[in-house]
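Format notes (please read before filing issues)

Several people have asked whether sequences and structure tokens are stored in separate files. They are not. Every record keeps both together, in the order shown below: the sequence lines, then the token lines. Line labels are part of the format and must not be stripped during preprocessing.
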Amino acid sequence: MSAVDSASPATAPRAGASPRSLGRSPAAISVGSVLVAGLLWEFLGRQFPATASYPSAVGAALIEITVGDGALVSALADTLRGMAAGFLVASVLGVAIGFAMGRIPVVAGLVEPYINAIYATPRIALIPLLVLWFGIGFQLRVTVAVLTAIFPIILNTYVGASSVDGGLMDAGRSLNANSLQLLRTVVMPASLPFVVTGLRIGGFRALVGVIVAEMTASITGTGQLLLTYGRFLQIPHLIAAILSLGVIGVVFTQLMGAAERAAMPWARQRRA
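Then the structure lines:
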């Protein structure tokens, strides 16, 4: 058998395709699809400018409401301040309550009925009552953000803390680890994927909750700005504001991914 005959078929490169070009193809396809969608939107939007607008008009509107009058910047600042404060409070309380429920059955039995009842209640139905209690300012935004974000955090943390592998707990006890040491070295690391998932969901829900509160209670902010643009048929401005919220969502996702990689380096090594 010759050297050519003994070569493995898997090692033979395909004609016209290098490994480098194949590695770039997914990104190229994504960029190409975005460009095609943008061109199609530009063409169709110019046919129906009163309802669909088009990218060039949206870009001009975005410059106007950010660099020009700064309406979007001011509105986003109000929204994000309330969302961030509420998300921080919800994160601390939600993780603490979730761990307590997951590791202490008595706490789970006492708290779970109330959590299920409040979680099943649409938060938007509580906004009129919250307006009476907290007014229509910063405190309302924070309260709504807490109420919308805390339950996914509690429930995901609870699931993670209550489903820790019993073998890991037994191994820790065999090394004479006390309850606090088991919590720090076994329960928390094993629960981190669930906690991160809860934080990610809670963050998005906090943002949505604050925007809905701004729309419902007529608070100055991004929600009210969206209603104003829609009411006066300022479609390019409306789409520009919506796209800005999408960008914020992408940035939040990337930040949560970076936090997850920093908190769980072993998961990244396992995937590698």
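For reference, the curators noted about this record: The two ends are 38 Å apart (CA to CA). The chain has one domain: 60-264.
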